[in-house]
Amino acid sequence: MTKYVINGGRPLYGDVEISGAKNAAVAIIPAALMVDGVCRIENLPGISDVSTLLNILKEMGASIRVVNKRTIDIDCSHIGTSSATFEKMRRIRASYYLIGALLGRFGRADVAMPGGCNFGGVRPIDQHVKGFSAMGAKVSVRNGVVQAVTGGTLRGATIYFDVVSVGATINIMLGAALAEGTTYIENAAREPHIVDLANFLNSMGADIRGAGTNEIKIRGVRRLRGGFYSIIPDQIEAGTYMAAVAGTGGRVVIKDVIPKHLDCISRKLREMGVTITDFEDSVVVERTDPLIRTHIKTMPYPGFPTDMQPQISTILCLANGTSTVTEGVWDNRFKFVDELAKMGSSIRVTERTAIIEGIPCLTGAPIKAGDLRAGAALVIAGLCARGESVIEGVNYIERGYEKMIEKLTALGADIKSLDLPDEPKAEPREIG
Ligand code: EPU
Could you confirm whether 76 is annotated as catalytic? Predict the structure, then answer.
């Protein structure tokens, strides 16, 4: 088992380079399955979710060539199966994008679904099913496998989502790219990675307009051809480092980002007394004065991202006064507060709102990550705390953060990864 050991209380200074976006990569890799020819994908993050998905494609028959540490060529031309029911599929939430990709390419899909998850209680896929059914697929879910079948190909349709769903928007966009006729998605999600997927598909020959608004029009094309594409920077990885500097104090240049994508995070950090200066492809984050309390509600983009909620809740533990954080996307994303309590925090959760009383400092403790963003939040807590924190469950963190230890060490943090070979390593299942 790997643990992170942090000696907290040091401000962060220096530069950090942000990797490619996890949630764009996990949509673009399945999208490559629909392409006839070689896709060169650049700026891929070096995280375990990406390697799991690439291994799934390999098992299905894709040929994958590593060009350099951030670039790969994927050729799925020879894949002949519409089934992806491997055990690996259950480890990552994003494996459900293979439903849209396989339906688009073959007109049918058998895909194993992720099992339980570590936050959020139920993670339904009713909106995905609603969309594919409107496009002519018969969808059933049995023994954890989703089976979707059409008479030949998906047909264009108008689909109104009852909830704003990133996953359903992406899945329908995938299937619709090779469908017969035109699909309209209404009440679509608008996250930057949705625009990135549309740009990827368009650069391979798809005809998608309106991504980034709540109405997307997808005119189906007969075939997608190979090409080059570079993934956008990771909004949440950048936000996590911004929150870390806000928590510890110091001054850090967050490099290789799209500052516009960070506005929803920067605005709240500024309210908390953090100085943030935007440049063309970097932001400088500086915090010298005590943090000020604030009130936050998470919402779909361009609202404050739910994937930054644990990190911001953590630093609000150290703000002057009482803050509230309301979770507007997931049902139950506050499990990590039990770990923060071990470090002396004062947080009370009522339904979807955390009431956070600011305290002067957190104290290092043994703590355990239960999911990816909770893990990132606990690292931030450890960096801010007095004394030593030992974090378990870091396999979750490594699903979505490339070289976190190296990046934080370069900023002056005292953080080490310890491998303890005698304890069994838990397989991450869930989320993301
Ligand atoms: N929902 C439904 N029905 C559906 C789909 C979703 O009711 O068919 C509900 C969910 O229960 C939730 C809300 O809609 O309350 C939003 O869910 P969404 O479908 O947008 O989430 P997702 O696609 O499963 C992605 C990210 C998550 C991120 C959410 C929200 C990926 C691979 N995952 O999940 O990222 O929290 O969008 O922004 O893109 C993470 O990176 O740590 C992570 C969990």
Answer: no
